[in-house]
Design goal:
The chain has a two-stranded antiparallel ribbon with strand order 1-2. It has 3 helices and 2 strands; from the N terminus they run E-H-H-E-H. The protein has a domain at about 20-80. By secondary structure, the chain is mostly helical. This is Spore coat protein. InterPro entries: Ferritin-like, Spore_coat_CotF-like.
C-alpha cells in the first residue's frame, strides 16, 4: 500500500550555496534536539536539587524552542511525516497488548 506523506505545501527557498531560511531553521532544530537529549541525561544524573531545578528549567525552555522550530518547519512544508498504515498499527497493538503485565504500575491504564 502506498503511504501518503503528511505535509503542508512547501515554501520555496533559493537553491544557492548560501544557507537559506530552511537551512538555518533545520540547523537550529537539530541543535535543539541534541541539547534536549543532553539536558535529559544531565537531569537523570543531577544529584543536587537546586542544580536539578535549574537544569529542568533550561530543559523545558529548550524543549519548547525545539517544538516551535518543528512547528515552523512543518507549517512551511519543510518537515514531513509518513502516515502509518492501519494494518501495521493493528499488528503492533496485537503484538504488544499482552505486555501489560510487565508495566511497573499494572495493566489498569492500558486497554
Amino acid at each position: 500500500m502506498n503511504q501518503q506523506p503528511i505535509q503542508n505545501p512547501e515554501t520555496q527557498v533559493p537553491k544557492t550555496p548560501q544557507m537559506n531560511d530552511r537551512d538555518f531553521i533545520n540547523d537550529l532544530l537539530a541543535t535543539e534536539k541534541y541539547m534536549t537529549d543532553s539536558y535529559s541525561t544531565a537531569l537523570n544524573e543531577a544529584s543536587h536539587q537546586a542544580l536539578y531545578q535549574d537544569l529542568l528549567a533550561i530543559f523545558t525552555e529548550t524543549q519548547n524552542m525545539q517544538r516551535e522550530l518543528y512547528t515552523v518547519m512543518f507549517q512551511k512544508g519543510w518537515y514531513k511525516l509518513e502516515s502509518a498504515e492501519q494494518q501495521k498499527l493493528q499488528q503492533s497493538y496485537q503484538q504488544f497488548k499482552g505486555y501489560t503485565n510487565q508495566f511497573p504500575y499494572g495493566p489498569s491504564t492500558v486497554q
